[in-house]
């Protein structure tokens, strides 16, 4: 690339290299600081609502951070070549058919502000010479701003290339329209998707953490389709790491076979919506599944299968992780960090309508054992189960989905 400013002095280069080496060890925390604000700045609700795309966007942010830091370790203060790798290219290609057009410049503008502030603090903390500090800031500002401009251009060019290379673009675009609530005639949807709408549907999202696991994802999808024998299935590629699936039939689809498949799929996770009928059911079940997926990712849960009907209350409680953590601690107190068996027993007891015999049967334990565990758990809990069973059960469910939420420091 053409250099647009003179090379820095040896002293300036040494400072920039040292600071970049230090910050490279903090690439993950810097990426975390960028992820939320840059996503909002891109101003596309469809992007915000898909947890797999959110994760891919985060990966792009991390790649950008690492590219600038490593380039400035090798060639301090020089113009940095944007990195648009295979994963970024695939991500941009997945946005196009879904009609997602993020504001790339807006995202980069926010990212630049956050990164510059972090860089400024690092420079001031580790560069005591005022004159040298001015030179470091002058050179690094040129490099950082130009990197943002070059990256925006490279991403826009990659997006234009992607727009011409997806054979399934029309079907995916239609699915995105339906999912977003746009008015689409049922008969038109059926013809173009070759999938009957006037039936019961359940929406699923299957995903993996990395494109390297896509073979496992494909195997899981095949197993789900096989387990749902006798039902129609519609599968759409949401992004490199996730797939949307709808299963339909004359009656409400049974999710138990799907849950069985996921129990055997080591690298794949699934989220399921509540069943619904017709075009609206197709849409609402899919939105439920996306919400369940977002909950699992937000809480860092390792659950293989999550049905939104089971976690709807938890979804509402955990939109903010720090607030969810406070709710659990304030409700359960010492019980939040007690033996898992105690918490599971108390939760089962509440879910069984305070029936000790039923709870014992569900837990494969003696009735007296269940009574002792419930009594001990209730003594540890700040809020007693008899005073507010709803709060206690909700807090226990949060811990069941995200066992480490109490141990994790709030953001």
UniProtKB/TrEMBL annotation:
Keyword entries, A-Z: DNA-binding
Superkingdom of origin organism: Bacteria
Pfam families named in the record: GGDEF_2 (PF17853), HTH_30 (PF13556)
Domain CdaR GGDEF-like: 192-294
Span of domain PucR C-terminal helix-turn-helix: 342-395
Membrane-spanning intervals of the chain: none
GO-annotated molecular function: DNA binding
Family: Belongs to the CdaR family.
Protein name per UniProt: DNA-binding transcriptional regulator, PucR family
Protein source organism: Streptoalloteichus tenebrarius (strain ATCC 17920 / DSM 40477 / JCM 4838 / CBS 697.72 / NBRC 16177 / NCIMB 11028 / NRRL B-12390 / A12253. 1 / ISP 5477) (Streptomyces tenebrarius)
Lineage: Bacteria, Bacillati, Actinomycetota, Actinomycetes, Pseudonocardiales
């Amino acid at each position: 690339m053409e250099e647009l400013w003179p090379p820095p002095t040896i002293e300036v280069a040494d400072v920039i290299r040292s600071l970049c080496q230090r910050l490279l060890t903090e690439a993950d925390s810097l990426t975390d600081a960028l992820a939320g604000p840059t996503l909002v700045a891109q101003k596309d609700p469809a992007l915000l609502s898909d947890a797999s795309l959110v994760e891919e966007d985060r990966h792009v942010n991390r790649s950008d951070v690492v590219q600038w830091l490593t380039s400035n370790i090798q060639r301090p203060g020089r113009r940095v070549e944007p990195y648009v790798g295979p994963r970024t290219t695939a991500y941009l290609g997945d946005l196009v058919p879904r009609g997602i057009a993020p504001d790339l410049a807006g995202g980069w503008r926010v990212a630049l502000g956050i990164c510059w502030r972090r860089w400024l603090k690092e420079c001031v903390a580790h560069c005591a010479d005022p004159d040298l500090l001015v030179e470091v800031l002058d050179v690094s500002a040129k490099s950082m701003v130009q990197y943002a401009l070059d990256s925006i251009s490279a991403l826009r060019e990659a997006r234009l290339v992607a727009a011409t290379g997806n054979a399934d673009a029309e079907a995916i675009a239609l699915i995105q329209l339906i999912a977003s609530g746009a008015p689409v005639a049922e008969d038109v949807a059926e013809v173009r998707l070759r999938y009957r709408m006037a039936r019961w549907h359940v929406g699923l999202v299957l995903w993996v953490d990395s494109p390297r696991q896509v073979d496992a994802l494909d195997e899981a999808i095949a197993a789900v389709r096989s387990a749902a024998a006798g039902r129609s299935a519609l599968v759409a590629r949401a992004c490199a790491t996730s797939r949307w699936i709808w299963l339909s039939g004359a009656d409400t689809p049974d999710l138990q076979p799907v849950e069985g498949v996921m129990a055997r799929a080591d690298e794949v996770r699934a989220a399921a919506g509540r069943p619904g009928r017709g075009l609206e059911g197709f849409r609402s079940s899919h939105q439920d599944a996306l919400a369940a997926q977002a909950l699992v990712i937000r809480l860092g849960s390792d659950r293989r299968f999550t049905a939104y009907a089971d976690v709807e209350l938890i979804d509402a409680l955990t939109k903010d992780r720090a607030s969810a953590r406070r709710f659990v601690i304030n409700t359960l107190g010492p019980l939040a960090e007690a033996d898992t068996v105690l918490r599971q027993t108390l939760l089962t007891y509440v879910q069984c309508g305070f029936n000790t015999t039923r709870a014992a049967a569900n837990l494969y334990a003696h009735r007296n054992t269940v009574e002792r565990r419930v009594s001990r758990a209730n003594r540890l809990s700040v809020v007693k189960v008899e005073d507010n069973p709803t709060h206690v059960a909700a807090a226990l469910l949060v811990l069941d989905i995200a066992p480490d939420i109490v141990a994790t420091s709030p953001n």
